[in-house]
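Exercise 4. Each item below gives a protein and its sequence. For each, produce the structure-token representation.

Item: Sporulation protein (Heyndrickxia vini).
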Amino acid sequence: MDTTLAYLRESLSNHLNHRIGEEIYKKLHSSTNQNELEFVRNLSEDETAFLNSVLAKEIRYAQDEQDQTRVTQLNEVYELLL
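Answer:
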């Protein structure tokens, strides 16, 4: 699995209480050969909106924790959503 998608999957594990979060997590789990661009292109509008919201929060959290690696990895996906 792409490193960026691994960070995304781990972040999404905090949001499995939402149906859309669980759907995206399952897609990540089953898409072992995709890169982040391919993954984002296969998201529905609802999934993109959900992920956009979640990533904004997760990136802020990573910044607060001074985890620059996580910020960079999650930001790669976030930029593709825009």
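Check: The helical segments are 3-12, 19-30, 36-41, 45-64, 68-81.
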